[in-house]
Description:
20 helices, Sodium/glucose cotransporter
Amino acid sequence: MLHVLLVFLTVFSFSGPVLAAGGVALGEVKKQPLNITAIFMFFIFVMATLGITWWAARHTKTKDDFYAAGGGIKPWQNGTAIAGDFMSAATFLGITGAIYGFGFDALVLAVGVMAAWPIILFLIAERLRNLGSYTFIDVVSYRLDKKPIRIISAIGSLSVIIFYLIAQMVGAGKLIQLLFGVDYVYAVVLVSFLMICYVSFGGMLATTWVQLIKAILLLIGGTFIAFTVMQSFDFSYEALLSSAAESHPKGTAVLGPGLWMQDPIAIISIALTMMFGIMGLPHVLMRFFTVKDAKDARKSVFVATTLMGYFYILIIIIGYGAMTFVMDNPDYHDAAGKILGGGNMVALHLTQYMGGNLMLGFMSAVAFATILAVVAGLTLAGAATIAHDLYAKTFKKGPVSNAEEIRVSRMATFALGAIAVVLGIAFEKQNVAFVASLALAIAASVNFPILITSMYWRGMTTRGALAGGTVGLILSIGLIILGPGVWTAVLGNAEPIFPQIYPTFYSMPLAFFAIWLFSVTDKSGQAEKEKALFDEQYVRSETGIGQSKASDH
């Protein structure tokens, strides 16, 4: 999911010269008048989702139920939930705001996401489902030395999850503070409490249904807004674009490239980050284990791709519609003429313009609900990594019972909830653009290279995987720290040591190179055994026939 990254990208984009420096501090958010409708709908949603959690808890008895809903999720349900991971508040608010500000250039954010799904459909979904049990780490450790591979993969996964959680918590706190008038600290604690309830009691079943319902509500709301916008132009897309260009200060420049992104390497790097980062997100990959077989995994991807494609069409219409109805409307600007709540609020301003306070309340509640759903998915993936991959399969001596593993998972959920609160509060006024960027960069530079090579390259060895994962982890974190997002914007230095905001253009290829180099030069007996096991892995990945649980291999 783009998640809150896109919100921050949009907010920072409207910061003028600071964009070149990679972002600004999030800063203060002024509370708006209490939105009673939004609070009422928010309360209804919270009660409904807690009801779902109570129902799911009654059906969650084993670790199969907890991590993968017993493999009983239907393809349309799983596909909708996967789409819900990406149809987040940040996608709805963030990409819309980016289009509002920069027009055509902002479409790279949506295109980067959509480009990932054909690869997931044809290269990842089926093999992932056939080889794994609960997490993608089951897959990468299938034929390699279990302990070191699980450790390096778990470090990458937990890094992605924690950084995403920080961004989500800050985004949720600011959204509630802006819309509902609740203090930031209370908002962060509330999100953490609900997240712990969803995950620790309802597991994957509750998380899936919360995500599914949220996705449907967001599609309904987005369809209404886009329909009313197009109705205003007699359903003429040409008339919409013409009106948007007339309203925007940059005129027709918003209809073509070059207004926002001009550096080719920066464009390629952000596209790589979006595209391949998604293929390394633990909470997304985990969803392929919730269906019964590889066929249903493929169907899930098809459903998710269809829904996301439709949703991105909606937000393009909403983004250009906001140029006409929000840009020149004084009701949505402060005394200085700036858009209230920053560029990420234009979708909600347009919602109010088109549907009044009732529709604004509905979409505000849904926007917050998307963050809750995403946070729950992230936390569950983190709990699975800690309890299943590290505790049960790496460090614990002897067999681990279902009850023991679930207990550890729930303890991990509480720990992650506490970490999310502490870091969310600590990062309230800090630059968090680099945190969200780092999550996707790590996923693209560590998780994705290890995953794809473990499934498709016979020559990969444990030494190669460890080298590639370490190189990707160090470079993705190190180059962001040395780049404009941290070195100048956070640390206050005049010039960045590394010129790009996103390091993926360099870190991901070098991770692949390290995997190749250290694998082909590995002449050990263990390496030969691992290469020979690829044939067994290939049969299982193609047919699903083999052992009952890949993670027990």
